[in-house]
């Protein structure tokens, strides 16, 4: 159940990220201006480079870089406009997990995100995956609407702080059946 390192949509090329993409991907990270407010943290130093080299592996026994994909989203003209990652087999053997999905602020609102999610779902279904899971911070209203509108409507759990405040954070784990 492996995914291809590269696939295309009508307007986009989705491919495995390379270290040469780091500068542009870091700029896209910087475009997420309210990340600290929504998630409590900014991107760690060298986040992109670390994901490409070591992966952002889930907290499970025997997590392996060979099951991790850091993917770049680019327009067919070559302009990088976003990134996401995938992990095979988390939280169960039939699920692919998305732990990050970011579209550059400059191109949001043009349905690129929906196009990418459709492509991810199509590729995962072709490869034999049964579902896709992800976590969204509850303060990320825009993200919650986006994922819900794209069919991620099964709640797997809610994790984090029990009390709501400006300095507390919780995540809702969502799943889409393929």
UniProtKB/TrEMBL annotation:
Keywords: Transferase. Residues 12-178 form the N-acetyltransferase domain. The keyword Hydrolase does not apply. Coiled coil: none annotated. GO terms for molecular function: acyltransferase activity, transferring groups other than amino-acyl groups. Pfam families: Acetyltransf_1. It comes from the Bacteria. This is Protein N-acetyltransferase, RimJ/RimL family.
